[in-house]
Amino acid sequence: MILSHHQKTVFSVILTIIITVIAMYDTVFHLLLELMHVSFELVEQSLDLLVEHIFHTDRRETQIIVFYIMAAIACYGVYRLLRVIPRCCRKCRECLAIGWLRLKLDSLAYWQALSPAGKAKWWLGGITGVSGMILWLFM
How much is the CA Rg of the chain, to the nearest whole Å? Predict the structure, then answer.
């Protein structure tokens, strides 16, 4: 497979991001939380300035108004989320059922296509694995 220079660059960046997330997951998680906090503070400060400018209120009244505005936005977000969750769960359940059926059919076809020696290898591998786990558990 021949990749262009642009594709190699994109692949390298994605690979670097994945390795960074795996190697420094706690730092990346902290950075994401900090970015969410800063963006929340930015929205809150913007709403404070907007409400204070429009309604000519003092600091306490502005904070109360902004709190109720943000509470209304959060309630609307939760309402939309609760409307979407059942649909997503239904779709996920259907996809899981289809995937499970496909896996069962593929496994059955694979098992039927195996020779008796291949089936014996699978049985012996399973028995050996279970025996090893039992020995490891009781040692």
Answer: 28
